[in-house]
Amino acid sequence: MINLIGKAASPGISIGKVHLLDEDQIQIQDRTLTDSEIDKEVERFLNAIKSTEDDIKKFKENVEKNLGDAYGEIFDAHLMILRDKVFLEKVISEIKIQRKNSDQVFYRIMKKTQESLSATDDKYLKERASDFKDIKRRILRKLQGDDRLCIHQISEPAIIVSYELTPSLTVGLEKSKILGFATELGGRTSHAAILARALEVPSIVGVKDLLKNIEPGDNAIIDGNSGNLIVNPDNEVIEKYKSLKEGLFQFSKSLEKIISLPAKTLDDKEIDLSANIELPQELDSVISYGSHGIGLYRTEYLYLLKSQLPTEEEQFDDYKSIVQRIYPNPVIIRTIDLGGDKVIKTPKGLKEDNPFLGWRGIRVCFDYPELFKTQLKAILRASTMRNLAVMFPMISSLDELIKAKAFLEESKEELRKQNIDFDENIKLGVMIELPSAVLAADELAKEVDFFSIGTNDLIQYTLAVDRANVRVSNLYQFYHPAVLKLIKMTVEAGHNNNIWVGMCGEMAGDPLATYLLIGMGLDELSVSPLILGEIKQIIRSINYSDAVKISEECLNMKSADEIESYLSNIMKEKFPTIPL
Ligand code: PEP
Ligand code: MG
C-alpha cells in the first residue's frame, strides 16, 4: 500500500482498478491471456519490434542522406535495443509466465530499465534512458495502432491514471467508464481539472512520482476532497474510505432541501448563484442542484469535441437547447476561448513556447473574423427568448473591447438584412481576467452591461504562475493580497458605473472564499454545479454585514497564508461539517 499526495481537483471518493496512460498518453491495458492467446501475443510483440526496426532503419537512411553519416549513428543505440536478444527473451518469457498482454509486460520492463538508467551518475548511461523512452513509445504505438488515444474504449469502469490529461482528450471520454482521474501534472484550475468537475468525477492532479509508483492493474482509492491517492489499499483502508464516501453522500443529500430556495443571506442580501458549464450534458446537474442560471458556458468545448469547426447551425442548435431548458433564468455564453491548453488544429496553428501568453481567446477570434461572426450569429439567433447574454474572454484593453463589439454589431446587421429575429437588447459582458482589464475597468464598464471576473486567469497573469504547472502550484494563490485588491477594484469600478459584477473563476466555488466575496460586494457567483449546493448553504447561513467586516479584515492583511488561515478558522468554527 502506498499513499501519494496531490492537489484535490474534483470532489468525491472513488475506489477501483487503475487504467494507466503513460507520459505520451498511451494506454497500458491490463489483460490476462488464455492458453491459446499466448503464442499469438508473442508474435504480435515480435511483429511490433520488426516494424519499429524497419521504421528506424528508414529514418537512419534519410538522416544519413540529408545530414551525413555521423548523424545517422544516433539511431544505432535504438537499433541495438531492438536487437538485444536478452531483452527480447525476457519480454517473451514474462508474457508466457505472467500470461499478460505484451504492451503491459513490455511497459513494465522498459520502465524499470529507464528508471535505473536515470538514477545512475554515469552521464553516458543517463543519456541512454531517453533512447529507452523513445523506443518504448514507438513500440507501444505499434502494439496499439490507432487505438492508442481511444481511452473511451475502456472495457470496465476504472480510475484513469495519467502523466497528463489534456482537455481535448478528456472531453471525449465516456463518463460511465471513469471512476476518477489522477495525474502527475496539472493544477486545480487547469482545464482538464475543470472538466473533471464538469463530469463529476473525483480527481487529483499534481501527484508527484505518480507513474513511478503505480502499475497497470493496480487498485486505488482517489479522495478528491483531501488530495490523497492510495495505491493497493488494504481492507481496513478500503472500509475507512467507504464510510467517508457514505458521509459525503449524506452531506450532499442534506443539501437537497435548499435546491429551490434562493441564495440569500440571513439579512436578506440575495446573490445570483449560477453554474459554469462546459458540456451540454451538464444541464441536468445545473437544474437538479438548483442553479439560478448559467453564469459561464465555455463554448470552446464544442470545437474540441469535433474534428471540424462546428457550423452556425450546429452552434445555434446547441445554444438554443440550453437557453430553452434554463428559461426563464439567464444564460451567459462566452465566445470561444481557444488556445492556452485548449488547442485545435488551425491553418495558423503554430507551436508556441508560452501558449498562455500567446494566441488565445479573443486574439484567435480577431484573426478569424468569419469564425467569430459565425459564432456571434449563432448566439444572436438563439437569443429570441431574451434570457441570453454574451461575454468576451481575454480582453486586455478598451480598444479590444470596441473591436469585439464591432464584430457583434456587424453580425447583428447581417441578421437584420436576412430578416432573422434576435434580441436587439442582448446583454453584453466582459471577462475581467487580465490585470490590464482591471486597470481599465472603469472605461470597460461604460461599454458593457456586466463584468465577470475570471480568477483562474487573473491569478495566473497577476502572479506570473502558469495555472497548469505543478512545479509552481504553491505560488498559485487565491488569497494573495494582490489578487484580493484586484477583485475589489473591479467590483468598485463596476458598481461606480452601475453594472453588476460576478465571478466565474474557480475561486467563486471555493467555500473558503464565500464570506470574502460576498463581503467584497460581488453580485453573482458562478460555480461548478457540483459545488453549488454547498455554496448556497453557506450564503443562506451567514450575514452580509459580517461578510463585509470579514472582507475588510482580509483586505488589510499582508499575506496569503494569513488570509487563508483566518478564513479557514472562521469556516471551521461556523461550518464544521462542510468539507473544505
Ligand atoms: C477564468 O479564467 O477564471 C475563467 C473562468 O475562464 P477559463 O477557466 O476558461 O480560462
Ligand atoms: Mg479565463
Percent strand equals 5-15%
CATH architecture classification of the largest domain: Alpha-Beta Barrel
CATH fold-type name of the largest domain: TIM Barrel
Overall number of structural domains = 3
Average pLDDT over all residues: 91
Q: Hetero groups bound? A: phosphoenolpyruvate, magnesium ion
> Based on DSSP secondary structure assignment, what is the total number of beta strands?
17
Low-confidence stretches: none
Can you give the helix content as a percent range?
40-55%
**Silhouette:** globular
- Major pleated sheet: 9 strands, mixed
The helix count comes to: 23
Rg, nearest Å: 26 Å
- First-to-last CA distance: 26 Å
- Broad CATH class of the largest domain: Alpha Beta
CATH superfamily of the largest domain: Phosphoenolpyruvate-binding domains
- Indicate the structural class: alpha/beta
Secondary structure elements and pairings:
Layout: E1 2-5, E2 7-10, E3 13-21, E4 27-28, H1 35-67, H2 69-72, H3 76-82, H4 85-98, H5 102-119, H6 123-144, E5 158-162, H7 167-170, E6 178-183, H8 191-198, E7 203-205, E8 219-223, E9 228-231, H9 235-254, E10 272-277, H10 283-288, E11 294-298, H11 300-305, H12 312-326, E12 331-334, H13 362-367, H14 369-381, E13 388-392, H15 398-417, E14 427-432, H16 435-439, H17 441-445, E15 450-453, H18 455-463, H19 481-496, E16 500-503, H20 514-520, E17 524-527, H21 529-541, H22 544-556, H23 560-574
Helix pairs in contact: 1-3, 1-4, 1-6, 3-6, 4-5, 5-6, 12-14, 14-15, 20-22
